[in-house]
Amino acid sequence: ISFDPNVRLPIWDKSEDCRQAILEFLPYAHILKISDEELFFITGKEEIEEALEFLFQGNMKLIIFTKGAEGAEAYTKKTKACAQTQKVKAVDTTGAGDGFIGSFLYQLYQDQVEIGTIENLTAETLKEYLEFSNKFAGLSVQKKGAIASYPTYKDMFS
66 Cβ partners below 8 Å, 6+ apart? Predict the structure, then answer.
């Protein structure tokens, strides 16, 4: 189970209701994608490394921390990986986070990574996944729209 809380406070009557709903679902997830903009709201912590113990609850195996133009990080209980993004001129960031996690999950699927073995991923492999997903999101923000802006497989390798 992959969980991207995708915090959108305007659709909630009370922000605390949103936070409580996220906290209720968190222990059921195996993979969490959380952004730098969501970290404090969800965990009460300013830094990801301070929040890891809180986030690694229940079934959690992998935490992906996205930082927009500053790249992304991935954490298992055994290892950590970081990847920077290439600087691009963003036209529209709509859907970038969804594209990022979708392309990350695609890589897990392609490599036939199962939940029971996700903790055994190396820092090198996690970094490759992050770099691929950073590239995917980076290409998508250079066009208008969400899904319509997503690069094709060919775009990724040309």
Answer: 33, 34, 35, 36, 72, 97, 100
CA atoms within 13 A on the CB side of 63: 26
User: Which residue in the list 4, 17, 98, 155 is annotated as catalytic?
Assistant: 98
Q: What are phi and psi of 30, to 5 degrees?
A: -100, -30
Torsion of CA 141, 143, 145, 149, to 10 degrees: -80
Dist. CA 36–CA 93, nearest whole Å: 15
CA distances to 43, 116, 135 from 101, in Å: 20, 19, 12
Active site residue 111: no
Give φ, ψ of 80 to 5 degrees.
-140, 145
22-71 pLDDT per residue, tens: 999 999 999 999 999 999 999 999 999 999 999 999 999 999 999 988 99
What are the structure tokens assigned to 44, written together? 């009460």
